[in-house]
Amino acid sequence: MAEIINMPRLSDTMEEGTVATWFKKVGDTVKEGDILAEIETDKATMEFEAFYEGELLHIGIQEGETAPVDSLLAIVGEKGEDISAHLSGDASEAVAPASTEDQAAPAQETTTAAATMPDNVEVITMPRLSDTMEEGTVATWLKKVGDTVNEGDILAEIETDKATMEFEAFYAGTLLHIGIQEGESAPVDSLLAIIGDKDVDVDQAIAAASASTQEAAAVVETPKAAVAAPAPAVTPIAAPLKQAAPAPVPTQNTSGRVIASPLAKKLAEERGIQIANVPGSGDGGRIVKRDIENYQGTVSGVAAMPQGIESAEEVPNNQMRKTIAKRLAASKFNAPHYYLSVEFDMENAMAFRQQYNSVPDTKISFNDIVVKATAKALKQHPQVNSRWHDDKIVKNHHVHMGVAVAVEDGLVVPVVKFADELSLPQIGAQVRDYAGRARDKKLTPAEMDGSTFTISNLGMFGIETFTSIINQPNSAILSVGAIVEKPVVKNGAIVVGHTMKLTLACDHRSVDGATGSLFLQTLKGYIENPVTMLV
Fold this sequence. Notes:
By secondary structure, the protein is α+β, with helices and mostly antiparallel strands. The protein has four domains: 3-114, CATH 2.40.50.100; 121-233, CATH 2.40.50.100; 237-304, E3-binding domain (Dihydrolipoamide Transferase), CATH 4.10.320; 320-534, Chloramphenicol Acetyltransferase. The chain is built from twelve helices and 26 strands. The protein has helices at residues 104-114, 202-213, 216-220, 224-228, 238-244, 262-271, 289-293, 319-334, 347-356, 366-380, 424-439, 513-528; strands at residues 3-6, 16-22, 29-30, 35-40, 45-49, 54-59, 66-68, 72-77, 121-125, 135-141, 148-149, 154-159, 164-168, 173-178, 185-187, 191-196, 337-345, 386-389, 392-395, 401-403, 405-407, 410-412, 415-416, 453-457, 476-490, 493-507. The longest helix has 16 residues, at 319-334. The strands form seven sheets. The protein has a six-stranded mixed beta sheet with strand order 17-26-25-24-20-23. It has a four-stranded antiparallel beta sheet with strand order 1-8-6-3, with no helix packed on it. A hairpin with a 2-residue loop joins β18 (386-389) and β19 (392-395).
């Protein structure tokens, strides 16, 4: 009897899954406990076991495809069993039983043969290197076609939405094919490379890999000669570049637009090179990284720029910028924001910090005081330290403090775990370490995951007051301004004082106005009397 297998719910927040890899194909024998497929959830890629025995009669979701939880994933049953009733009339996807008309069999055999992967070949796809990564950019290839690859070798540097990370090889062999060139971007699970034995039929491997990753169109555009014979790829290119240097000819298409990779454009801009003057050696005359590195022509400077001419610059959005745009837009338009602004007296905090820093080898900042005070206040107001779901609100009783850090390409939010339990020097050391490594793109995904609340501090830039967009899935974010010297009224007299303005942005679905106000009152008590944080 046929058994229906649906897309499983492999995590508490999973709403849909993507089939990363099938380990069985239609017609294979399946035993209980066999790994049927790898399924990518919203949190991880997990192996999915078979709970039934029989023959795999039907695959409902192909590799690379995404479907909601409980969608038809596969059917397992007896060989030749009629499953048409289970397919709800979708005869085009049904596996033909023994009684099916003969003409269906050759078509299926042809398709299978065309997508057969040669032995001793491993397909490498664009990895998911962070929980929010949807596509990646190959910044640098450290291996070229024809090179020997050992397990553990660094294949490439891949730019994600959060950092540029080294990607190791998990297989040994020869690099037979590169599917994504330097500077190019592609979705997660796109064909990145193929590794195998030297004598493998590379064309067949590419065709089979492309069928499984649904990128056959990209493979068609790859010159066959370059794949079949990797040797020319390592031929020195200095001679033709030297011949072309005396009279560089702009490489343009018929519309006059310069054809160049994003990485080549970036390098040209950094080196002050007029990219239109650089001869291209890539496919169709495309200007690539090596053309910029080997260019011997004139380098333009600011002084040579013509006066009175309108100019503009196109900067391709990198993965970090794309993700910031997507996530903040979703937060702003989906979560109903409201804002609560307060002004704190900072006289006691300033005196407290001065005394604290008088201890040898100790240095804390005002930001450290705000992080500690906020963490202590959140422990008393878990509703502000919460996460909204359509059917529930999750109140976190641990405080993982996200601290927004500005970097060259945008913004990252490293997370100080259990911030309420850390001392002020421990908080300061962690924040400084994270900030430094964030600017070098050396933070790991784990160090940017799991925040329950976020602080954004622009006071160091002289900003007195501002509002922030909530860092989902948090329910609130605190915007911290600069400490300002100003006249204040104390005991009926005008005196010189120091104040700081803070603005709390809340998601009204999970944090009501009164709840946010009470939280700020508690925070005020800690910041205006910081010694109470140590009790």
